[in-house]
Every structure is written in C-alpha cells, then in structure tokens.
Design a protein that fits this description.
It is built from seven helices and no strands. With 146 residues, the chain is mainly alpha-helical. The chain has one domain: Globin-like (Orthogonal Bundle), CATH 1.10.490.10. The longest helix has 31 residues. The structure holds protoporphyrin IX containing FE (HEM). The site of protoporphyrin IX containing FE has 21 residues, from helix 3, helix 4, helix 5, helix 6 and helix 7.
Length: 146
C-alpha cells in the first residue's frame, strides 16, 4: 500500500473544493449567520441570553462569519477562543444547546442548496456544541464538588 503525504496546501485545496461543491462560499456563510442570529435574537428563550451578553451585534456577526468560513473553508480568518467565551456564561442548560441546534438546522434546511450542505454544517455544529457543553458542565461539576 502506498501512503501519500499530502501537503497542508493540498489538504486546504481539498477542503475548499468540497465547500465549493456544496455551494458554500462567503455569501452563503454571510446569509446563514445573518438569518440564524436574527432568529436566535427573536427566540423566546435564546434571545434574552444572547441579547443580554452581546452589545455589538455587527462585530459579533462578523466574528461568527469568520468562524464559519474557517470551519467550512479553512479560511484561517478566525483566531478567537470559543470555549472560554462560553464558559463564562451562566444559567445555560443542556436544552438550550438542543434549541440552538434545532434552530440552526431549520435555518440550514431553508437556505441550503441541498441536504448535503445541511449535513455538512450540522455535523460540525453538533461536534462543537458537544465540546462546549462538556467544557461548561465540567466546570459546573467541579463547582459542586468544591
Ligand atoms: C445554547 C447555546 C449557545 C449559547 C447560549 C451561546 C452564546 C454565546 C454568547 C453569549 C457569545 C458571546 C460571548 C462574548 O462575546 O463574550 C458567544 C460567542 C460565540 N459562540 Fe456561542 N453560544 C451557544 C452555542 C454555540 C455553538 C453551538 C457554536 C458553534 C458551533 C457557537 C459559536 C460561538 C463563537 C465562535 C463565538 C465567538 C467566540 C469569540 O471568539 O469571542 N456558540 N456564544
């Protein structure tokens, strides 16, 4: 069996080709982030959480567009730290993540060019949500033991 060592540049190109095949570009990500967060802000449970924390929405949305462009297209434009940003939030429940993911899926199903694109984003969002939840609940359980 021959193993090929692919350069970072080749891997990056594969990721970008795959994104292009799924109809993912900066315009799509911009529409996704704008549509999704408009719904989050209007949501009866999630809205107050986000509106209570975020003062500068244009800045937040620009950050989220860079984040998703980096996740989906290897754009390398996001250099923030999502885990500490969420660990400082209080009163977030497991069900809130389920609501977040449900709203994200509903948005994707409405605006995506096809089901593969929905699946692509949902797999990544679910994985990230799981690691954020783990980090947040880890801190809670430490607090309870102390
Ligand atoms: C119930 C679920 C969630 C809630 C309530 C929530 C809430 C928030 C809030 C309030 C902020 C702003 C923090 C700040 O700027 O100080 C934030 C930032 C952010 N969130 Fe979430 N979030 C949730 C789930 C997610 C998920 C599932 C993802 C990714 C798939 C995500 C990605 C991000 C990113 C990338 C930032 C920017 C972090 C930074 O660089 O400053 N969030 N979130």
């Amino acid at each position: 069996m021959t193993y090929q060592i692919r350069s970072a540049e080749e891997r990056r190109r594969d990721i970008q080709d795959n994104a292009a095949r799924l109809g993912i570009d900066d315009d799509f990500i911009s529409m996704l982030v704008e549509t999704f967060y408009a719904r989050v802000r209007a949501h009866p449970r999630l809205g107050p959480i986000f509106n209570g924390e975020i003062n500068d929405w244009p800045d937040h949305l620009a950050k989220l567009k860079d984040f998703w462009a980096s996740v989906a297209m290897n754009a390398g434009r996001y250099s923030g730290k999502p885990v500490p940003a969420h660990m400082k939030l209080e009163g977030i429940r497991r069900e809130d993540f389920a609501l977040w993911l449900g709203l994200f899926q509903q948005t994707l199903e409405e605006i995506s060019p096809g089901p593969e694109t929905v699946e692509f984003f949902m797999q990544r969002a679910a994985r990230i949500a799981q690691s954020l939840q783990l980090a947040m609940s880890g801190l809670e359980s430490l607090g309870r033991r102390a």
